[in-house]
Design a protein that fits this description.
It is a single chain. By secondary structure, the chain is an all-alpha fold. The chain has 2 domains: 71 residues, RNA polymerase sigma factor, region 2, helix turn helix motif (Rna Polymerase Sigma Factor, Chain: A); 65 residues, Arc Repressor Mutant, subunit A, CATH 1.10.10. Helix content is 61%, strand content 2%. Strands 1-2 form a two-stranded antiparallel sheet. A hairpin with a 2-residue loop joins strand 1 and strand 2. Helix 1 runs antiparallel to helix 2, helix 2 packs across helix 3 and helix 6 packs across helix 7. The N and C termini lie far apart (58 Å).
Length: 183
């Protein structure tokens, strides 16, 4: 605001966005917006497209509970991927306790996949749980092998080996379909 040719005041508390204070964490909804897609990709890769719809919100519900006690400066993406990994394990354990139904209901899937996607999911299903997790955390979440090793357990070298073996298995399973990258 200008009064008598001089700038007076400044932005009001209602119009100005306050600067983030040192040591104060960003709001959780910002964390969800920033890292939600990565967590969903990891959940899909580890659990498959159907169960990822349960794993993703479970990850953020658990994260929301633990977020206030999280140390400032923590690598939020790696932390969220770790939470997603633990929730994926919970979902897989629950899956093993579910008894199959006598008759599968008829109907089309809402998520239609082309043949290539179905081939990829079949090839991913053939990988070991560890290989699938390493590939998801490294290639989809963008974590380094050191962080991946912390999440899945073991050494950085073991995570690299599992990743290389997983990529090789996918390339063999998909033949010429896996052009241009890791799968």
């Amino acid at each position: 605001m200008t009064v008598a040719g001089e700038e007076v005041g400044g932005p009001t508390s209602r119009s100005a966005r306050p600067a983030r204070l040192p040591g104060v964490r960003e709001p959780f909804e910002t964390v969800v917006r920033r890292h939600g897609a990565t967590v969903l990709r990891v959940c899909r890769a580890v659990l498959g497209p159907e169960e990822a719809q349960d794993g993703w919100p479970e990850t953020f519900l658990a994260s929301l509970r633990a977020f206030p006690e999280l140390a400032v400066g923590t690598n939020l993406e790696a932390w969220l991927v770790t939470v997603a990994h633990r929730k994926a394990i919970d979902v897989m354990r629950a899956r093993s306790r579910v008894s199959p139904v006598a008759q599968v209901p008829d109907g089309e899937s809402r998520d239609r996949a082309d043949a290539r996607d179905l081939d990829l999911w079949a090839a991913l299903a053939e990988l070991s749980e560890r290989q699938r997790a390493v590939l998801a955390y490294h290639y989809l979440a963008g974590l380094g092998y050191r962080d991946v090793a912390k999440i899945v357990g073991g050494t950085e070298a073991a995570a690299r080996r599992a990743g290389a073996d997983g990529v090789a298995a996918l390339r063999r399973a998909l033949g010429g379909q896996a052009e241009g990258g890791a799968a």
